[in-house]
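Annual report, structural modelling task.

Input specification for the PRP complex:
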Amino acid sequence: MQELTIALTKGRLADQTMDLFARAGYSCEELSDKHSRKLIFTNEDQKLRFFLAKGPDVPTYVEYGAADLGVVGSDVVVEENRRVYEVLDLGFGRCRMCVAGPKEAIPLLQNREMIRVATKYPEIAREYFYHRRQQTVELIKLNGSVELGPIVGLSDVIVDIVETGSTLRENGLDVLEEICQLSARMIVNQVSMQMKAQRIREVIGNVREQL
Ligand code: PRP
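The model returned the following structure:
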C-alpha cells in the first residue's frame, strides 16, 4: 500500500474533515486529542500521515508534493491559485465571500468610485472589482480582523468571508454585495494523482460516498 500524506486546515475545518474521513474508514486516533500541540499524526496500519497547517499554506504543501492531498476552503484555493487538482466539494465550511461596509458606501459602489478596499483576499478582490465590476479600486492587504477597516477609516469597504453575519452585525456593517459561495474542497498534487492513482481514487471514492 502506498503511503499518503494529507494536509488539513488547522481548526474547525480539520475537525470536520476528520469526522468525514472517519466515516469513510480513515481514522487517526492521535488527532482526536484536542489539547495536543503536535502537528503531524500517523496511522501506521492504513499508511496515512496527516498534518495541520494554516489554510493559505495547504495548497503550497500540495503543489510541492509535501502532501498528496489537502483539504482547504475554496476561498484559499482561488486566492492562492496553485497548480493542484481540485477534486471534491466537501459541502461543509459553507460561507460567502462578500463586499461589506457601512450603508454610506453603497453610492460609492454604484458610482464606481475609486474606493479603498481592505481584505485578506487581494486576488479575489482584484478579480471582482477590476474584471467583474470594471471598477478601479485601491486594495489594502490585511491579515485579520478586516472589519476594522471601515470602522477606523482605513478603507471604504472590505472583501471578506461572511458565515453567520454576526461579526458584521456586531460592528455595524452590512453585506453590500455577494461575490461567491464558498465551501471546503479536497485538492490533490498533480504528480501524486498519476503516481498514486489507485490509492487516491479509492480515497476520493470512499469520501464521496459519505457526502
Ligand atoms: C472570519 C472572517 C470574518 C468572520 C465571519 O474571521 O474573516 O471576520 O470569520 O464570520 P461570521 O459571519 O460568522 O461572524 P476569522 O474568525 O477567521 O478571524 P480573522 O478575521 O482574524 O481572520
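The first helix runs from residue 12 to 23.
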